[in-house]
Specification:
Blueprint lengths: L6 E6 L2 E5 L12 E5 L14 E7 L4 E8 L2 E8 L2 H4 L9 E7 L4 E6 L6 E5 L4 E2 L1 E3 L6 E2 L8
Antiparallel strand pairs: 1-2, 2-10, 3-4, 4-7, 5-6, 7-8, 9-11, 9-12
């Protein structure tokens, strides 16, 4: 959930939104499957402390991906078999760098395809989960991961 306690909910087959859930509706929230990505072959140029991951929706074959839409990147959900397909170059859109801040217990996810762009949620409820290059200014790009 984001630092405002909003959970991710799958609103349509490929639309992820963030909202506050309480009581019985909390069963609607989706769980992210964070898969660590280890590239084959020579080591890539990923910087120190950067952990490349693929972000899937548990129970679905849906993964977050970052693609260019017009002039700016956009976040979408795509059906994929990332374990099989991820080694091809064009699939960097599925890779995000997990940036942990141990002192605050928070995490950010930066797009590998578009450095400087982070997964974000709106300050308003029921808005789609998106991507921004201005983290935590008009939206929330910082998350607390829950193991439940």
């Amino acid at each position: 959930f984001d630092i405002n306690q909003k959970c991710f909910v799958l609103e349509s087959p490929t639309q992820l939104v963030a909202l506050h859930l309480q009581g019985p509706s909390s069963s609607q929230k989706v769980r992210l499957n964070i898969a660590l990505y280890r590239p084959r072959g020579p080591r890539g140029s990923s910087g120190a402390g950067q952990m490349p991951v693929a972000l899937g929706i548990k129970g679905y074959k849906l993964y977050m991906s970052c693609v260019l839409s017009g002039a700016e990147p956009t976040l979408q959900l795509e059906e994929a078999d990332v374990l099989r397909d991820i080694d091809s170059v064009e699939l960097t859109r599925f890779i995000f760098y997990r940036l942990d801040s141990p002192t605050e217990g928070t995490t950010r996810f930066e797009s590998a395809a578009f450095p400087g762009w982070f997964i974000c949620t709106s300050l308003q409820p029921r808005q789609p989960v998106g991507i921004t290059n201005q983290p935590d200014q008009v939206n929330i790009a910082t998350y607390k991961l829950s193991g439940h």
